[in-house]
Design goal:
This protein is an alpha+beta fold. It has three helices and three strands; from the N terminus they run βββααα.
Length: 70
């Protein structure tokens, strides 16, 4: 969330990430705190490994077909 902004909208504040509105809150301080907390959590999250991304779940079609045979 390196590109965010807090914009006032009436009595509330809207947090925007890039061009997208992601949060509406009544306190500017609270909005800034939530952004800070979110950035901290994103930094703590481990980078996904290539092995996990390459893994997919494929159903066993043989098991499905065998169970449907009378």
């Amino acid at each position: 969330m390196s590109n965010y902004s807090i914009v006032r909208d009436g009595n509330e504040y809207v947090v925007r990430a890039g061009e997208k509105s992601v949060l509406k809150i009544s306190s500017r301080r609270r909005a800034a705190k939530l952004i800070s907390d979110a950035v901290e959590l994103l930094e703590q999250q481990p980078a996904p490994s290539e092995e996990v991304e390459a893994t997919s779940i494929v159903p066993d079609l043989g098991a499905i077909l065998d169970s449907q045979v009378p």
